[in-house]
Each structure stands twice: as C-alpha cells, then as structure tokens.
Amino acid sequence: MSASRPENIVIIGSGPAAWTAAIYAARANLNPLVFEGEPVGTELPGGQLMLTTDIENFPGFPDPISGPELMDRIKAQAVHHGARVVSELVKQVDFSQRPFTLTPNYSKPVTAHTVVVATGAAAKWIGLESEMRLAQQGGGVSACAVCDGAMPFYRNKRLAVVGGGDTAMEEAMYLTKFASEVVVIHRRDSFRASKVMANRVLTHPKVRVEWNSQVAEVLGDDFITGLVLEDTRSGEKRALEVGGLFVAIGHTPNTRFLAGQLDTTEHGYLKVAPWRTATNVDGVFAAGDVIDDYYRQAITSAGTGCMAALEAERWLAHHGIGETPLLEAVDG
User: Fold this and answer.
1) Residue 47: which pLDDT band, with cuts at 50, 70 and 90?
2) How many CB atoms lie within 10 A of CB 11?
3) What's the pTM?
4) For 55-90, what is each residue's pLDDT tens digit?
5) Beta-bridge partner residues of 240
6) Active site residues
7) 3-class SS of residue 34
8) Hey, how many other C-beta atoms are within 10 angstroms of the C-beta on 332?
C-alpha cells in the first residue's frame, strides 16, 4: 500500500467475485490490492462458502470440494498472479472525490482510481447456538438449498425449511427432488410469498406446513437429528425428527460501510447497469452477491467478478492508465 500514490484498483471482499476480479486484474498488471476482511461473529473471509461442506456444481471439480478449500484455491491463484492481500475490513469509503479514499479498520487510509465492491450478502440465521454450530461443522444445517440440497447427505430424508417468502418456497420445491418429505416451518398462519409460489408448495404431495411455529432448538451433536418447534401462539413445544434444516429467511447485503454512497435496489442490493457491473459512481464497480438477490451461486459471482475487473481495467485505460482490454465485439 502506498500513502502517496493511488492504487490502480482496490477490491473489497473475499468471495468468488472478489478473488476472480483479483485474478483478472493481476494478470492485467494492475497490481490489485484486496481487502479480504476479517472474522466477525459467524462471518468469515470467504463469505457464505465458508459454511458449505461439499460443492458439486462448480465447473472444473468433478469430485466434491469443500467451500473453504475452493476459496483457498481461488485466493491462491489470485496471489500467484500478483494480487496483494490485506486481512482487514474496510470500515469507511469516500467516493465523493477522486482518487477515492478507503479507510481500513487498523491501517492507514488508501486511495484508489477504481474500486470493486464484492462484499457479498450475509444469510439471516435464526440465531441459535446449536444452529450455528451444526452449520459451521457441516452437520446438516444450511442457508442454501440449491447449493447443498442435492448432496447425498440429504437424500431420502425429511428436510425442514424455515421461512414464508418466495425464497423459502423455491427452496422447498427444489428439495422435493431429493427429500422423502419437506416440512416448511412458518411463524405465521399464512405465507408472505406470491400466490403462485405458495400454491405450488401447498399443493405438492411431498410438502407439509407447520403453521404458527418457530424453531426453538436444533438437535444433534455432530449431525442434525431433529428440531424443537415452539407454537408462536401458545408457547407449547414439540419435537420434529428431520435430517436437514434449510434456513430461508433472507439475506442482508454487506453494504453498511458504504454509508449510502452507492445506489441500491428496493431490497438493499447495489444497483448496477444492465449486464454490466458499473455503479452510479463512475469508477466504482460491484460484483457477486452484493448485487444479486436472484442466483446467489459461486459461479455467477465469479462471472461478475471477471466482468468488474475487465470494466475497471477499461476505465483505467480510458483515463490513461494501462492498456484497453478488448471488450467490444468485432466483425470477422
């Protein structure tokens, strides 16, 4: 880091989007600086994949690979090509003047010509110690059915989904392909999901709903064996045997440190130009789950990381720094 000369590109984040952006920026000789963050509670550098045991849908890995190992490999590739890493969170940014200023938790402020925000989105959890313990050790608790539901561990078991919105409905329907039964647990007496999505769940022969219920405890030492459900009206508790728990109560984009300097969608995700990663601030780009409330997959995050790095490289070239990458379509 240099206090006097601005960085060409600073990447904030440490998931697939951030490290892919770092790989592309490093190979373009932009000498990228990556703020990978630091552990805070259940949040770890590497993002949501740090809570994923086996990944079977990332191209190039015919055998399952753990989330932490995949992140280690992508990071190692970025470092191999010259990315520099600071293990700190960025607590404040100033995008009101150029070069931009970024203030880390402990180090001196850094200035940059371009910035890629790839800070992801944190899954909302119920907040139980037993829930987090089993999620962190791969014990059958997950916040992403599409990521984990197809694993052999969950096959032909009764699986529970917590939530009542469209995401919970999608997770429940996806799990019907693999589960013997899917139990949707909702704290109210009706879903807030769209009528179409709710009807699909309510009419599916493999799905039943536990209305007016919340999870009071997750049972199991090394692997989940069941749940303790609490009636939200009477407080009465009962046990439910399950072989997996999927928490689908939403995500929170990690954007608080931006202090509203970038435009967001109605759900709080950073808003970017269609099929691009440019934000409303010229020279600031965003990638990964911080812009995506729809796909939320490692491979789509990596793709947008690539896009952000190429757009930043092009921005720098147009301002007299570096060479322009070939992005326009050409004839012939």
Assistant:
1) confident
2) 34
3) 0.80
4) 888 999 999 898 889 999 999 999 999 999 999 999
5) 227
6) 144, 147-148
7) strand
8) 2
